[in-house]
Amino acid sequence: MEKYEIVNEEIGIGRDAVVRLMRCKETKDLVAVKYIPREDRIIDEKVAREIINLRSLRHPNIVQFKEVALTPTHLAIVMEYAAGGELYNRVCNGRIREDEARYFFQQLISGVSYCHDKEICHRDLKLENTLLDGSPANRLKICDFGYSKSYLLHSRPHSVIGTPAYIAPEVLSGKDYDGKLADVWSCGVILYTMLVGALPFEDIKDTENFQKTIKRVMAVQYKFPERVYISQDSKNLISRIFVANPAMRITMKEIKSHPWFLKNLPKELRDGAQDVYYNEENTKYPLQSIEEIMNIVNEAKTTTATSSPYL
Asked: What is the mean pLDDT of the chain?
Protein backbone atom coordinates (compact mmCIF):
# COMPACT_ATOMS: atom_id res chain seq x y z
CA MET A 1 0.00 0.00 0.00
CA GLU A 2 3.04 2.26 -0.24
CA LYS A 3 1.72 3.88 -3.42
CA TYR A 4 -1.27 5.43 -1.57
CA GLU A 5 -1.45 8.28 0.93
CA ILE A 6 -4.25 9.00 3.40
CA VAL A 7 -6.62 11.86 2.61
CA ASN A 8 -9.40 11.14 5.11
CA GLU A 9 -9.25 8.76 8.04
CA GLU A 10 -12.79 7.49 7.56
CA ILE A 11 -15.50 7.96 4.94
CA GLY A 12 -17.53 4.87 5.76
CA ILE A 13 -17.85 2.20 8.42
CA GLY A 14 -19.47 -1.23 8.48
CA ARG A 15 -19.79 -4.15 10.86
CA ASP A 16 -16.34 -5.58 10.07
CA ALA A 17 -14.70 -2.94 7.90
CA VAL A 18 -13.85 0.72 7.56
CA VAL A 19 -13.50 2.69 4.31
CA ARG A 20 -10.87 5.41 4.02
CA LEU A 21 -10.26 8.00 1.33
CA MET A 22 -6.75 7.77 -0.11
CA ARG A 23 -4.80 9.15 -3.07
CA CYS A 24 -2.55 7.31 -5.49
CA LYS A 25 0.83 9.05 -5.26
CA GLU A 26 1.63 8.40 -8.92
CA THR A 27 -1.65 9.33 -10.64
CA LYS A 28 -3.08 11.63 -7.92
CA ASP A 29 -6.41 9.81 -8.34
CA LEU A 30 -8.60 9.53 -5.25
CA VAL A 31 -9.58 6.00 -4.26
CA ALA A 32 -11.78 4.42 -1.60
CA VAL A 33 -9.98 1.71 0.35
CA LYS A 34 -11.98 -0.82 2.34
CA TYR A 35 -9.94 -2.18 5.26
CA ILE A 36 -10.97 -5.57 6.65
CA PRO A 37 -9.19 -6.87 9.79
CA ARG A 38 -6.97 -9.90 9.19
CA GLU A 39 -8.96 -12.31 11.33
CA ASP A 40 -9.98 -15.80 10.20
CA ARG A 41 -13.60 -15.31 11.30
CA ILE A 42 -13.86 -12.16 9.14
CA ILE A 43 -11.73 -13.05 6.10
CA ASP A 44 -13.98 -15.80 4.78
CA GLU A 45 -15.66 -17.05 1.61
CA LYS A 46 -17.97 -14.01 1.61
CA VAL A 47 -15.00 -11.63 1.41
CA ALA A 48 -13.41 -13.62 -1.41
CA ARG A 49 -16.74 -13.70 -3.25
CA GLU A 50 -17.14 -9.92 -2.93
CA ILE A 51 -13.70 -9.29 -4.42
CA ILE A 52 -13.94 -11.85 -7.26
CA ASN A 53 -17.44 -10.72 -8.26
CA LEU A 54 -16.56 -7.02 -8.18
CA ARG A 55 -13.39 -7.71 -10.19
CA SER A 56 -15.47 -9.21 -13.00
CA LEU A 57 -17.76 -6.18 -13.32
CA ARG A 58 -16.63 -3.27 -15.52
CA HIS A 59 -19.55 -0.91 -15.99
CA PRO A 60 -19.99 2.88 -15.64
CA ASN A 61 -22.75 2.38 -13.03
CA ILE A 62 -20.75 0.01 -10.82
CA VAL A 63 -17.94 1.08 -8.50
CA GLN A 64 -14.74 -0.06 -10.16
CA PHE A 65 -12.40 -2.54 -8.49
CA LYS A 66 -8.74 -1.56 -8.75
CA GLU A 67 -6.74 -4.00 -6.63
CA VAL A 68 -6.51 -5.90 -3.39
CA ALA A 69 -3.48 -5.69 -1.09
CA LEU A 70 -2.26 -6.61 2.38
CA THR A 71 -1.07 -4.54 5.30
CA PRO A 72 0.30 -6.14 8.48
CA THR A 73 -3.14 -5.89 10.10
CA HIS A 74 -5.70 -5.61 7.29
CA LEU A 75 -6.85 -6.80 3.89
CA ALA A 76 -7.31 -3.70 1.71
CA ILE A 77 -9.73 -3.53 -1.25
CA VAL A 78 -8.93 -0.51 -3.44
CA MET A 79 -11.91 0.85 -5.39
CA GLU A 80 -13.08 3.84 -7.37
CA TYR A 81 -14.08 6.80 -5.18
CA ALA A 82 -17.58 8.24 -5.64
CA ALA A 83 -17.39 11.82 -4.38
CA GLY A 84 -21.15 12.47 -4.32
CA GLY A 85 -21.88 10.12 -1.41
CA GLU A 86 -24.88 7.84 -0.92
CA LEU A 87 -28.14 8.33 -2.81
CA TYR A 88 -29.70 7.69 0.61
CA ASN A 89 -28.57 11.14 1.73
CA ARG A 90 -30.40 12.75 -1.18
CA VAL A 91 -33.66 11.05 -0.23
CA CYS A 92 -33.21 12.00 3.44
CA ASN A 93 -33.59 15.61 2.31
CA GLY A 94 -37.01 14.78 0.82
CA ARG A 95 -38.49 12.95 -2.14
CA ILE A 96 -36.80 13.31 -5.52
CA ARG A 97 -38.80 14.79 -8.39
CA GLU A 98 -39.91 12.18 -10.89
CA ASP A 99 -37.63 13.08 -13.83
CA GLU A 100 -34.54 12.91 -11.63
CA ALA A 101 -35.72 9.70 -9.92
CA ARG A 102 -36.19 8.15 -13.36
CA TYR A 103 -32.65 9.17 -14.35
CA PHE A 104 -31.20 7.47 -11.25
CA PHE A 105 -33.44 4.43 -11.74
CA GLN A 106 -32.39 4.10 -15.39
CA GLN A 107 -28.75 3.99 -14.27
CA LEU A 108 -29.53 1.56 -11.46
CA ILE A 109 -31.27 -0.81 -13.87
CA SER A 110 -28.43 -0.47 -16.38
CA GLY A 111 -25.89 -1.54 -13.75
CA VAL A 112 -27.99 -4.33 -12.21
CA SER A 113 -28.95 -5.67 -15.65
CA TYR A 114 -25.25 -5.83 -16.53
CA CYS A 115 -24.58 -7.79 -13.31
CA HIS A 116 -27.32 -10.24 -14.24
CA ASP A 117 -25.90 -10.61 -17.76
CA LYS A 118 -22.66 -11.61 -16.04
CA GLU A 119 -24.69 -14.11 -13.95
CA ILE A 120 -24.15 -12.16 -10.72
CA CYS A 121 -26.96 -11.12 -8.38
CA HIS A 122 -26.27 -8.37 -5.83
CA ARG A 123 -28.74 -9.39 -3.05
CA ASP A 124 -28.38 -6.20 -0.99
CA LEU A 125 -29.52 -3.38 -3.26
CA LYS A 126 -30.60 -0.34 -1.25
CA LEU A 127 -30.15 3.43 -1.25
CA GLU A 128 -27.12 3.12 1.05
CA ASN A 129 -25.41 0.90 -1.56
CA THR A 130 -25.92 3.32 -4.42
CA LEU A 131 -23.43 6.16 -4.65
CA LEU A 132 -23.17 9.31 -6.79
CA ASP A 133 -19.87 10.16 -8.45
CA GLY A 134 -20.17 13.92 -7.83
CA SER A 135 -19.75 14.79 -11.52
CA PRO A 136 -22.04 17.20 -13.43
CA ALA A 137 -23.71 14.11 -14.95
CA ASN A 138 -24.49 12.81 -11.45
CA ARG A 139 -23.61 9.24 -12.39
CA LEU A 140 -24.92 6.53 -10.08
CA LYS A 141 -22.55 3.80 -8.85
CA ILE A 142 -23.64 0.50 -7.30
CA CYS A 143 -21.36 -0.64 -4.48
CA ASP A 144 -20.95 -3.24 -1.69
CA PHE A 145 -21.04 -6.68 -3.29
CA GLY A 146 -20.53 -8.45 0.05
CA TYR A 147 -23.72 -10.52 -0.35
CA SER A 148 -23.41 -11.03 -4.10
CA LYS A 149 -23.49 -14.47 -5.70
CA SER A 150 -22.34 -15.72 -9.08
CA TYR A 151 -24.50 -18.35 -10.74
CA LEU A 152 -21.32 -19.56 -12.47
CA LEU A 153 -19.22 -19.98 -9.31
CA HIS A 154 -21.63 -20.42 -6.40
CA SER A 155 -24.75 -22.33 -5.36
CA ARG A 156 -28.26 -21.01 -5.98
CA PRO A 157 -29.20 -18.36 -3.38
CA HIS A 158 -31.20 -19.58 -0.38
CA SER A 159 -29.95 -17.57 2.61
CA VAL A 160 -32.17 -14.95 4.24
CA ILE A 161 -29.88 -11.96 3.84
CA GLY A 162 -30.29 -8.30 2.99
CA THR A 163 -32.05 -5.37 4.61
CA PRO A 164 -35.64 -6.09 5.79
CA ALA A 165 -37.20 -3.02 4.15
CA TYR A 166 -35.71 -3.96 0.74
CA ILE A 167 -35.95 -7.74 0.85
CA ALA A 168 -38.22 -9.71 -1.51
CA PRO A 169 -40.91 -12.04 -0.06
CA GLU A 170 -39.36 -15.21 -1.53
CA VAL A 171 -36.04 -14.52 0.20
CA LEU A 172 -37.83 -14.86 3.54
CA SER A 173 -39.05 -18.38 2.69
CA GLY A 174 -35.74 -20.05 3.50
CA LYS A 175 -35.90 -21.95 0.22
CA ASP A 176 -33.90 -21.53 -2.98
CA TYR A 177 -34.86 -18.41 -4.90
CA ASP A 178 -33.90 -16.52 -8.04
CA GLY A 179 -31.50 -13.81 -6.90
CA LYS A 180 -32.06 -11.81 -10.07
CA LEU A 181 -35.80 -11.49 -9.46
CA ALA A 182 -35.11 -10.63 -5.81
CA ASP A 183 -32.85 -7.83 -7.08
CA VAL A 184 -35.74 -6.55 -9.22
CA TRP A 185 -37.88 -6.24 -6.08
CA SER A 186 -35.14 -4.27 -4.31
CA CYS A 187 -34.84 -1.94 -7.31
CA GLY A 188 -38.57 -1.31 -6.95
CA VAL A 189 -38.12 -0.37 -3.29
CA ILE A 190 -35.42 2.12 -4.29
CA LEU A 191 -37.67 3.64 -6.97
CA TYR A 192 -40.69 3.93 -4.64
CA THR A 193 -38.56 5.53 -1.92
CA MET A 194 -37.11 8.11 -4.30
CA LEU A 195 -40.60 9.07 -5.54
CA VAL A 196 -42.39 9.08 -2.18
CA GLY A 197 -39.63 9.95 0.28
CA ALA A 198 -40.39 6.94 2.52
CA LEU A 199 -39.88 3.18 2.35
CA PRO A 200 -42.92 1.27 1.01
CA PHE A 201 -43.18 -1.48 3.64
CA GLU A 202 -41.84 0.28 6.72
CA ASP A 203 -44.10 1.92 9.30
CA ILE A 204 -42.79 5.47 9.44
CA LYS A 205 -43.88 5.68 13.11
CA ASP A 206 -42.26 2.35 14.04
CA THR A 207 -39.17 2.02 11.84
CA GLU A 208 -37.30 -0.31 14.20
CA ASN A 209 -40.08 -2.91 14.19
CA PHE A 210 -38.58 -5.29 11.64
CA GLN A 211 -41.24 -7.95 12.22
CA LYS A 212 -43.94 -5.49 11.19
CA THR A 213 -41.91 -4.57 8.10
CA ILE A 214 -41.48 -8.25 7.17
CA LYS A 215 -45.23 -8.92 7.58
CA ARG A 216 -45.97 -6.02 5.25
CA VAL A 217 -43.44 -7.31 2.71
CA MET A 218 -44.98 -10.79 2.78
CA ALA A 219 -48.46 -9.31 2.30
CA VAL A 220 -47.18 -6.80 -0.32
CA GLN A 221 -48.87 -4.14 1.80
CA TYR A 222 -48.00 -0.68 0.52
CA LYS A 223 -49.81 2.38 -0.84
CA PHE A 224 -49.11 5.63 -2.64
CA PRO A 225 -49.82 8.62 -0.36
CA GLU A 226 -52.45 10.98 -1.73
CA ARG A 227 -50.36 14.03 -0.83
CA VAL A 228 -47.67 13.03 -3.37
CA TYR A 229 -48.21 13.27 -7.12
CA ILE A 230 -46.83 10.22 -8.91
CA SER A 231 -47.54 9.49 -12.57
CA GLN A 232 -49.71 6.53 -13.54
CA ASP A 233 -46.88 5.01 -15.60
CA SER A 234 -44.54 4.95 -12.59
CA LYS A 235 -47.29 3.48 -10.39
CA ASN A 236 -47.86 0.80 -13.02
CA LEU A 237 -44.18 -0.11 -13.10
CA ILE A 238 -43.95 -0.31 -9.30
CA SER A 239 -47.12 -2.44 -9.11
CA ARG A 240 -45.58 -4.90 -11.58
CA ILE A 241 -42.39 -5.08 -9.48
CA PHE A 242 -44.15 -5.56 -6.13
CA VAL A 243 -45.61 -8.98 -6.96
CA ALA A 244 -45.21 -11.68 -4.30
CA ASN A 245 -44.85 -14.54 -6.78
CA PRO A 246 -41.47 -13.99 -8.47
CA ALA A 247 -42.62 -15.97 -11.52
CA MET A 248 -45.28 -13.30 -12.12
CA ARG A 249 -43.00 -10.32 -11.36
CA ILE A 250 -41.81 -8.06 -14.15
CA THR A 251 -38.38 -9.09 -15.45
CA MET A 252 -35.35 -6.89 -15.98
CA LYS A 253 -35.87 -7.10 -19.75
CA GLU A 254 -39.49 -5.99 -19.38
CA ILE A 255 -38.50 -3.08 -17.13
CA LYS A 256 -36.13 -1.87 -19.83
CA SER A 257 -38.99 -1.76 -22.34
CA HIS A 258 -41.54 -0.14 -20.00
CA PRO A 259 -42.81 3.29 -21.24
CA TRP A 260 -41.90 5.06 -17.99
CA PHE A 261 -38.36 3.68 -18.06
CA LEU A 262 -37.84 4.57 -21.74
CA LYS A 263 -38.89 8.21 -21.34
CA ASN A 264 -35.83 10.49 -21.74
CA LEU A 265 -33.52 7.46 -21.68
CA PRO A 266 -29.95 8.82 -22.12
CA LYS A 267 -28.12 7.58 -25.21
CA GLU A 268 -25.29 6.14 -23.13
CA LEU A 269 -27.74 3.85 -21.30
CA ARG A 270 -29.21 2.27 -24.40
CA ASP A 271 -28.31 -1.35 -25.14
CA GLY A 272 -24.94 -1.63 -26.84
CA ALA A 273 -23.97 2.01 -26.24
CA GLN A 274 -21.52 1.13 -23.46
CA ASP A 275 -19.46 -1.46 -25.34
CA VAL A 276 -16.75 1.13 -25.99
CA TYR A 277 -16.55 1.88 -22.27
CA TYR A 278 -16.14 -1.80 -21.39
CA ASN A 279 -13.37 -2.30 -23.94
CA GLU A 280 -11.49 0.86 -22.95
CA GLU A 281 -11.67 0.15 -19.22
CA ASN A 282 -10.58 -3.46 -19.62
CA THR A 283 -7.38 -2.38 -21.37
CA LYS A 284 -6.81 0.75 -19.28
CA TYR A 285 -6.63 -1.08 -15.95
CA PRO A 286 -5.02 -4.53 -16.16
CA LEU A 287 -6.55 -6.66 -13.44
CA GLN A 288 -4.99 -8.90 -10.85
CA SER A 289 -5.60 -12.55 -11.72
CA ILE A 290 -8.13 -14.53 -9.68
CA GLU A 291 -5.28 -16.77 -8.52
CA GLU A 292 -3.31 -13.77 -7.26
CA ILE A 293 -6.36 -12.39 -5.46
CA MET A 294 -7.10 -15.73 -3.78
CA ASN A 295 -3.47 -16.04 -2.66
CA ILE A 296 -3.71 -12.59 -1.04
CA VAL A 297 -7.04 -13.43 0.63
CA ASN A 298 -5.64 -16.72 1.98
CA GLU A 299 -2.49 -14.99 3.22
CA ALA A 300 -4.69 -12.45 5.02
CA LYS A 301 -5.82 -15.25 7.34
CA THR A 302 -2.30 -15.83 8.65
CA THR A 303 -0.86 -14.41 11.87
CA THR A 304 -0.70 -10.62 11.81
CA ALA A 305 1.50 -8.00 13.37
CA THR A 306 0.22 -5.12 15.48
CA SER A 307 1.05 -2.17 13.29
CA SER A 308 -0.57 0.67 11.37
CA PRO A 309 -3.19 -0.56 8.85
CA TYR A 310 -2.09 2.09 6.32
CA LEU A 311 1.32 0.67 5.47
From this structure: 89
pLDDT at 282 over 80: no
What is the predicted pLDDT for the residue at 31? Answer: 96
End-to-end Cα separation, the chain, in angstroms: 6
Q: What is the pLDDT of residues 20-40, one digit of tens each?
A: 999 999 999 999 999 999 987
Residue 199 lies in a domain: yes
d(CA 129, CA 159): 19
183/261 same-domain check: yes
Active site residue 183: no
178 and 96 inside one domain: yes
276/272 Cα distance (integer angstroms): 9
DSSP 208: T
- The span from the CA of 130 to the CA of 233, in Å, is 24
- Helix residue ranges per DSSP H, the chain: 45-55, 87-92, 98-117, 179-196, 210-218, 232-241, 252-255, 259-262, 275-284, 290-300
Q: Which of 16, 124, 176, 178 is catalytic?
A: 124
For the full predicted model, state whether its pTM sits above 0.85. yes
Lowest mean pLDDT among 61-65, 80-84, 206-210: 206-210
Q: How many helices (H) and strands (E) does the chain have?
A: 10, 10
Q: What gap in Å lies between CA 124 and CA 127, rounded to an integer?
A: 10
Cα distance between residue 272 and residue 250, in whole Å:
22
Task: Compute CA distances 201 → 3, 102, 129, 192, 242, whole Å.
Answer: 46, 21, 19, 10, 11
Out of 79-83, 108-112, 208-212, least confident range: 208-212
- Same-domain check for residues 59 and 93: no
244 and 181 in contact (C-beta within 8 Å)? no
Q: How far apart are CA 151 and CA 165, in angstroms?
A: 25
Query: Domain range for residue 11?
Result: 4-82
